[in-house]
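Lay summary. Proteins are chains of building blocks that fold into shapes, and those shapes determine what they do. In this project we predict the shape from the chain. Here is one chain we studied, written as its sequence of building blocks.
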Amino acid sequence: MEVLSDLSERLYRSFGRQVCLVVHGGGVMVLHRAFRCHGYTQDIDYIHRSFVREYTTLGFRDAEQRLRTCIEMTAYHFKLGADWMNHHADMTLPWAVKWVQPSIHAPYRFLKHN
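And here is the predicted shape, written in a compact code that computers can read:
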């Protein structure tokens, strides 16, 4: 937790505000209380593309570099590997231009086949 607290502080100083990173994988299992998993993980996986897109839209043209610098500085401070926090799974995510929230009230239409 000390490592993530350090990263959080660096991000806050760099962006001048609280930022949101979407974390997934083993890190979630270790960090989330609901899973009651008190083990460890070798890395933290996060969704990089959405972070960069969101914060660039908010006016942080160098959002990617700021994030990478904070991650690297935390790695250096705690003597962690270069990929202690990575976005390797981004390659498997679909590319979408626009998120469309499906309506739960939308009527279903079926095509009749002859």
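What the prediction tells us: The helical segments are 2-15, 26-31, 48-57, 63-78.
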